[in-house]
Structure formats: structure tokens, C-alpha cells
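## retry 2 of 3
previous attempt timed out at serialization; input unchanged, resubmitting
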Amino acid sequence: MKTDKSLYRIAITQIKGVGVMHARTLMQVIGDEETIFKEDVRKLEAIPRISRRLINEIRDPAVLKRAEKELEFVEENKLRLLFFTDEGYPQRLTQCIDAPLLLYAKGNADFNHQKTISVIGTRNSTRYGEDFCKEFIQELSERIPGIQVISGLAYGIDICAHRASLKHNLSTVAVLAHGLDRIYPQTHRQTAIDMLQHGALLTEFSSNTNPDKHNFIKRNRIVAGMADAVIVIESGEKGGSLTTADIANSYYREVFALPGRIRDKMSIGCNRLISGNKAILFQSFNEFVSHMGWEPEEKQPITAQQKLFTNLSEEEVLVVEKLRKVGSMHVNTLTIELNIPVSELFMTLLELEVKNIVTSLPGGMYCLV
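## retry succeeded, writing output
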């Protein structure tokens, strides 16, 4: 959403030497993106970890000039700006400490679907991986038609996932490692255009940003953070998919990997994720749905134990009321729905388990006893 703060929101990301953590500190202390550029220098100097050099960068007139140019690009191309405080910002990312402050989006997708997965894999995919990807997404469309599929528009598994999603009318989002003034690789341009009607292109990078190697690593944290589960279909011994899987684990996301024969080069990474307990063995679609707690459930009657609301904190009551309405819910969805940091939510859930009010299920799901 474009607001009167758009110029300053873009400008924060244009300050040399100010990364995500510095920018978050500025926002927390000052509280307003416009004020950051108008605040008294002495107040800026009092902010922890904000050096005089950074203050000079903030006050550099070139910052706002770059932001003005980028805002023109945004308006000319009818892009959406998603600031981390906006309702339309991917709420799953708000629980990730290194999530970008600002995202640029093209397309009409809602980035807060109730169920979201990331499908990733090697650029050098095989027939085995591509066939599985197509079959998996077809089954998703039949069993969970409201799910959103995220990937990176790269060769191999990524583009296979996007095209299969479009074929089966699933919302699909491509997270890019460059600005929205280009499409990389160029051969996927038509697919990217098709996605605008039933999905979106998303990036944290401003225009004129090249798809450099380090940008793909930054891109991968968004792919991991936006999803409830990450599915690694194929990977060699090294590759970006393995990095994404590691990031997903650090974000408390579920990670699944498709196993392959031990001599298949494009299955080495997946097999190692599974053997190293960094990913769950993907055996069947039914097991995946069951592990995620996405099976249709009948609402259970309220038990006597659940009626005992004595000595429950405000957060505990919120959790109980939410679970009472939906039956069961994944911890990542709970943290978004209730706007409670995931670290605090885990403590609340533990207290409710001790009180025999809530029980944990496989796959990070919780329900009332």
C-alpha cells in the first residue's frame, strides 16, 4: 500500500550502511519513518549502535533523491509497497528477526493465505523431481485449493512449481533476487507475466538491482519465512535449497525433503537433510497433510477441563479461545493470528500443557485437551 510515508519508507532502505537491524532500531526508538530524516542529530547520536558515520549517511541529501527516483518507478509501474507495519505485509515474516522492512510487489496476491508452502529445489532438476513436483501440486489443488505456493522463479524445480500452480489455479508467488525492472532468467518472463493474474512477484530489492549471488541468499530467507512448510524436492551436495532449509529450521518452519537413490547426484542434498534430522522424510501426500494438521476436523465439544479458566493469563485465554474456535492450529499460524512473538507463544503453550488444557500434536500443531 502506498501512503504519504512511502518516500521515507523507501529512503530507509537506501541509506548506505543501514541494514535491517539498524533500521529496526531506528524505527523502535524514533517510532516514525519520516522523523528519522528530520530528527535532531543529538537524539540520533543517543541511539545505541548508531555511529556518527551512519548519521551522516542518514542526513545525506542523496538518500531522499534516490528514494524519490524509486518512488517514481513504483508509481509508474503500479507496484505495491509493503512496509513491515502494514496489514498486507506477509505476517509470517514479522516473526523473523531479519525480515526486510520493505517489500515491492507486482500482482494481486494476498500474502497472508491461511496455508502457505514453499517448494524449492535444484536448478538441474531431473524427470523424477519434476514429475513429483507436478503431482504434488496437483494433489494440493484438489485437497487444499486455498493454499499458496512460493518459490524463486529459478530454473528447475522453482519454475516447475510455479507453472504447475498456475495450471491448477493455485496462488503462486515468486520471490526475486533483483528489482522489479527486470525478470531473471529472461526465459521465464512469460510465466512471470502469467503469475500476475493469479499470484505475484515479490522482492525487497529496488530497481536497478542486479541478480548478484549474495542477493539470492537474502532472497532465500524470505522464501523460508513466508511459508508454513518448506518442501525440498531435489538438491545436489551443495546449493541454495540447503541454505533455505537451514533458514527455515531456524524460523521454526517445517521442512520436508523428497528422498532419492543414494547414487543420484540430485538427491544427495535431500538425503542428507533427512539423515541429519534437518528435514522430514516425504513419504506420501497423506502423511504430509496429517503432519501439518491440515486434515478436515470435526469440532470437538468443550470438555470440563477446558471450562476451568481460573488462573489463566490474558495470553493463555487468547490461545484457548482461538483453539476452541478452530479445533487445532499450527504454532506459526497462532503467532500470526494472535500477534504474539513465537518465543512468548511457546512459553504460553507450555504453561497450558502443564495445566492439561492444551496438547501438542505432530508437526507443530496444538489443540485443546
